[in-house]
Structure of Heavy metal translocating P-type ATPase:
Amino acid sequence: MLYPQRLTQFTKEHTEAFAAILCGVLLFFGWFALHLNFLGWALLLLPAAYVIGGYESAREGLTTLFKEKELDVDLLMIVAALGAAILGLWKREYHLILDGGILILIFAISGALEGYAMQRTERSIRSLMSLTQDTARVLRSGREEIISISQLKVGDEIVVKPGELIPTDAMIVSGLSTVNQAAITGESVPIEKTVGEEVFAGTLNGYGALKLKVHQPPESSLLQRVIRLVEQAQTEAPPSQQFVERFERRYALVIVVAGLLLAILPPFVLNWDWETTIYRALTFLVVASPCALMAAIMPTLLSGIAQGARQGILFKNGAQLEMIGKVRAIAFDKTGTLTTGQLQVFQVIPTSGYTEADVLKVAASVESSSEHPIGEAIVQAARDLNWSRAVEVRAIPGQGILGMNGHQEVIVGKADFVQQYVTHLPSVLPHPALTGTPLLSKERGRGEVLNASELKDSADLLQQEGKTVVWVAQGEQVLGVIVIADEVRGEAARAIARLRKLGVEQIVMLTGDNNRTAHSVAQAVGIDQVYAELLPEDKLDIIRRLQKEYQTVAMVGDGINDAPALAQASVGIAMGKIGSDVALETADIILMADRLEKIEAAMRLGKRAQAIVKQNITVALGFIVLLLVGNFVGGINLPIGVIGHEGSTVLVTLSGLRLLRK
């Protein structure tokens, strides 16, 4: 079935966050009341904090116990906190009730953060929904009818007017147009589409009206598959997460069983009295509580997130901060990631007797009447030059554009198109380099002559490098060619080289663009492995293959077509400025300034976080072991156990805050 256009707003994470905040407030006032010896108020506020902060953990723990027949850390925390509270009431040491409340507060905060992260899937799908049409214009008995997308059937004919989103995957039966497929394939230039070719749902029709024939059910469209892939990839728990969950449940089971045995056996085995036995068992539950272990991880990751934000690196959750430091392979999208995603005039090659400025001015005179991205790039390059708009302009779809500039006809377009009007191809006096940086305004009109060559040979060479070559003629004379390209980011090659030095074993490019352009960009930035002409599901399959070989794989992208791969990757990284809404929602890390060198910074931050987490876990486990031994060998009392337990928690928390330092 089709995914609904609107999803119900889910507010569970807001409820959990509010509960954690309220629990903390009640604990603070409860502590204040104890400090002022207002016992009545303290015994009212602290139990309220228990109920509000511990409700969700208790519910989940009991659900796991009764439905899945397993124990987890949530239930262990509740038992430990209640044990501390009961012991505090029994011994009239009311500060122990506060200690139990702190245990609940820690887990309440953790639960709220987890709830927030779990909502990313729904937000991602809601962003994808904005690309889909609710209705389609279908032809019935020669008349147009507006019907719901869900009512479309295979064989229906639909009409898509210029500037409209295509409602479902279909085949063109009549018409000619350009279709902007950047949302699906990532191609930087709109593609000419004509009879017999397939168009995809969510892509944008260009200048021409199209009649389409539905050849597969709407729920099987490429965009709907993208939505399902995003949902599936985000809800699948990675192996590391599954391991942590299993460890938590086994740990909880061991502690609870050990606590029960310690509450029953010592009177029979060690001749302890029952008061001592219960006291030691409850102390055991408190000191064995995994709060120090939890504090060993979360404060460190939160500090790393804050440090990343200072550097323009937005981590959406702490797990990905840790994961980025383990990355062994990285996949890059091309358009908008390794390149700027915007077409620019890369070079102007005039023929003998003309300057670069002459070529640009003549081309801009007709392209100013075009809405094609190539035309917009030419007009932008000529913005500082003086030129007049041509008249009687007409575009020939897929070929070029013509118009009258003064008393002469201007022809701009493909080589074959221009040759229909100009039969002679003159020699060219080329710019010093056929590759380089985009043309700067100060360079226009002063190209330096090195040698003469045929214009056609120069154009062919540039096209082999993946660039688009536009021929410009006026009257019977070819003025030159304009080279259009999607500019490679200046920092891309340097960033990739530094990633290799950091230990990344494999760096690949995944793009929907053509093979020739992809290899040209890959060669420029130093990528060896290239996968071109990919659909979103193809990118997803390649990420899965890389994960089988390298385990931890990062994906860097910016478009809707990257969303499934971003979701499947161990770490999804999106470009913050130009990234699509769904890419930003799906990714785990966002580079706020679109600076590729920040990937290296994120990896270094992740490696530091890993090291600190390992140190903290060692310290936390060491304290737990010492306290457990002290409980049964040294006979430490509960206050000392709580001090040791809370002290270890504070110690590892402060250790985690080291990441806040530069």
Q: What stands out?
A: Confidence is low (pLDDT under 50) at residues 1-10, 427-453. Residues 340-488 form a domain with the Calcium-transporting ATPase, cytoplasmic domain N fold (CATH 3.40.1110.10). The two ends are 51 Å apart (CA to CA).
